[in-house]
């Protein structure tokens, strides 16, 4: 990826999760490699809000099969998923 | 006939010693190992001062050790208190203090998170994740120490079916959770009814989706052990992802599933369920909230040959009524009944004239009597006296009945239908939530003047929670500040996802906060 005025992908993911999923549960910070399941940021509905955000914001299609703990575990793994999808 | 829960294990361990009893997180334990490990834990607990009737807390994520701990505590003649491992330490500290827990089975991380006062109140912590190493001291016992205790017998403790087995804490309207006391008899009344009704056998593979502090798990764990079957504990890493969960049901060959409806709705909507992949699944039980009809119809159609049961009952009675879904009637039904009373349980609706409802279509509050009914709430005689009341409808002997607070009507087909609540308790994802507990958490913030929590009906999770708050003059608060304040008081599923601010909350003519108006406004 090249320099641009757009915030980096990872920053956008982190910002969305912080504002829409973490704050409402009273969680004010988390690390990029932290499990979003273990810290309780993501619940069963939050996952689908996150997927909708990824689809709308990054123009990708995330299938039901791809909604799994390996892909959506942390900010880092979500970034990896997007990179992998952009290469396809 | 068993009169204590641990007798179920004794019988199955003798009959199926090498069969897998429990699977969790890639590890499993046989009946013989479960029996031996729980014997050892019981001896260890007694040596560390646990006496009959003492409460022992369980506070760590679901694992094979959870089930070992449940049986270990029971074999010591004690009462286990499962605590939500995801709950804030403040709430767990309150629960442990409320029922006087001095021995806690936990892990290093969870123990570290407890506040100083709670840690001081504990005499002993048994750590399930810790190996024996020097310098443990300070009342901390590693799990590996179990190996030093006798494995092939359980301690001699005299119990009867009327002794307590466990205490389950649920949301309390006054701002603190309340502990529902359940005896061996309470639990076994339910377990024996399930065994007969759902024909659980040693060939069955049961799932455990509910958390262990939730009464749905009583079926999963004890009916498995009763039948000599295998229970597969579903942990968060599986439960949150519908496709992963469907693969789990398939690969483990689950035959009997029990969960809240919202878990099934997410499977239906996002897991691409296929009957041929879930070929072994024969029975689906659901409870805890109302199943939206349109989704139930789709699920029943998708899984032909599976028996579906709607189970109903508050923690205070476990399950007291049930309805077996009749697929042919589903299209013409606009609402699913809660059904008829379970065996060895009587239910009736009492109308506003304090008479038992007998006429079709009449409405009343549902009452429950029989051996499934709780003694009441731990250390809360006031609340107990309000909910567990003498049976005034018969005078021959003294007995109590439980008033559920649920309004029901009796239909022509003989089934009861749930209509709503008498109070402000709601359900979300099957969790009982007292809106008062949320309001207490909000009001404990120094900047908050008034607070009202409102339930917004939701198709998938039952209800979502919104709060409307007014602040003291010159105070400006952001929703995120209040949400993080709530996070140290109440579990995440209770934190309002939307918080609106008003200068003053609307009042009724009697000066109370007008919740009806706020709720109507929230729907717009």
Describe this structure in words.
The complex is a heterodimer of chains A (88) and B (524). By secondary structure, chain A is mainly alpha-helical. Chain A has a single domain, classed as Orthogonal Bundle (Non-ribosomal Peptide Synthetase Peptidyl Carrier Protein, Chain A). Chain A contains four helices and no strands. Chain A has helices spanning 9-22, 46-58, 69-72, 75-87. In chain A, α1 packs antiparallel against α2 (46-58) and α1 (9-22) crosses α4. Chain A is globular. In chain A, 34% of the residues are buried. With 524 residues, chain B is an alpha/beta fold. Among the domains of chain B are: 1-7 and 20-159, Rossmann fold, CATH 3.40.50; 199-312, Rossmann fold, CATH 3.40.50.980; 425-523, GMP Synthetase, Chain A, domain 3. In chain B, the strands form seven sheets. Chain B has a five-stranded parallel beta sheet with strand order 4-3-5-6-7. The longest helix of chain B is centred in the first third of the chain and has 17 residues, at 31-47. Chain B starts with a helix and ends with a helix. The mean pLDDT of chain B is 94.
């Amino acid at each position: 990826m090249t320099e641009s005025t757009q915030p980096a992908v990872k920053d956008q993911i982190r910002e969305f999760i912080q504002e829409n999923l973490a704050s409402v549960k009273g969680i004010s910070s988390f690390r990029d490699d932290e499990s979003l399941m273990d810290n309780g940021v993501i619940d069963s509905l939050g996952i689908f809000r996150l997927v909708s955000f990824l689809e709308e914001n990054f123009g990708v299609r995330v299938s039901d099969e791809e909604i799994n703990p390996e892909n959506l575990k942390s900010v880092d793994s979500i970034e990896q998923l997007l990179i992998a999808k952009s290469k396809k | 006939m068993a009169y204590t829960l641990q007798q179920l294990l004794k019988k199955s361990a003798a009959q199926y010693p090498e069969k897998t009893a429990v699977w969790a997180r890639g590890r499993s334990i046989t009946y013989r190992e479960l029996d031996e490990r729980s014997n050892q834990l019981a001896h260890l607990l007694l040596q560390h001062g646990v006496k009959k009737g003492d409460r022992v807390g369980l506070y760590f994520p679901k694992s094979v050790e959870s089930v070992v701990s449940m049986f270990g505590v029971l074999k010591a003649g004690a009462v286990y208190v499962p605590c939500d491992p995801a709950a804030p330490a403040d709430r767990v500290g309150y629960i442990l203090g409320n029922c006087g827990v001095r021995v806690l089975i936990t892990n290093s991380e969870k123990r570290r998170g407890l506040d100083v006062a709670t840690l001081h109140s504990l005499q002993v912590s048994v750590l399930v994740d810790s190996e024996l190493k020097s310098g443990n001291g300070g009342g901390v016992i590693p799990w590996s120490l179990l190996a030093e205790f006798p494995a092939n017998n359980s301690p001699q403790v005299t119990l009867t079916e009327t002794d307590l087995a466990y205490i389950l804490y649920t949301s309390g309207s006054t701002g603190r959770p309340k502990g529902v006391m359940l005896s061996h008899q309470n639990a076994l009344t339910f377990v024996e009814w399930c065994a007969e009704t759902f024909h659980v056998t040693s060939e069955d593979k049961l799932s455990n989706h509910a958390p262990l502090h939730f009464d749905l798990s009583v079926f999963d764990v004890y009916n498995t052990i009763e039948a000599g079957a295998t229970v597969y504990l579903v942990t968060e890493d599986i439960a949150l992802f519908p496709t992963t969960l469907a693969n789990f049901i398939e690969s483990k060959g689950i035959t009997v599933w029990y969960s809240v409806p919202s878990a099934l709705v997410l499977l239906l909507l996002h897991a691409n369920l296929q009957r041929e992949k879930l070929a072994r699944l024969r029975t689906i039980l659901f409870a805890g909230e109302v199943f939206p009809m349109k989704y139930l119809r789709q699920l029943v159609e998708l899984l032909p040959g599976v028996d579906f049961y709607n189970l109903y009952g508050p923690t205070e009675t476990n399950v007291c009524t049930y309805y077996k879904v009749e697929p042919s009637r589903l299209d013409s039904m606009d609402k699913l009944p809660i059904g008829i009373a379970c065996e060895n349980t009587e239910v009736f609706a009492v109308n506003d004239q304090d008479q038992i409802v007998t006429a079709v279509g009449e409405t009343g509050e549902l009452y429950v009597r029989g051996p499934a009914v709780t003694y009441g709430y731990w250390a809360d005689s006031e609340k107990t006296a309000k909910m567990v009341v003498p049976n005034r409808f018969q005078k021959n002997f003294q007995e109590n009945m439980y008033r559920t607070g649920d309004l029901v009507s009796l239909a022509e087909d003989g089934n009861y239908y749930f209509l709503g609540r008498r109070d402000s308790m709601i359900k979300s994802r099957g969790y009982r939530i007292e809106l008062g507990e949320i309001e207490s958490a909000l009001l404990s913030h120094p900047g908050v003047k008034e607070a009202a929590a409102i339930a917004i009906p939701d198709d998938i999770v039952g209800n979502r929670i919104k709060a409307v708050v007014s602040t003291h003059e010159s105070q400006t608060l952001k929703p995120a500040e209040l949400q993080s304040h709530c996070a140290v008081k109440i579990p995440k599923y209770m934190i309002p996802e939307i918080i609106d601010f008003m200068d003053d909350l609307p009042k009724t003519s009697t000066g109370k906060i007008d919740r009806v108006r706020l709720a109507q406004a929230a729907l717009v």
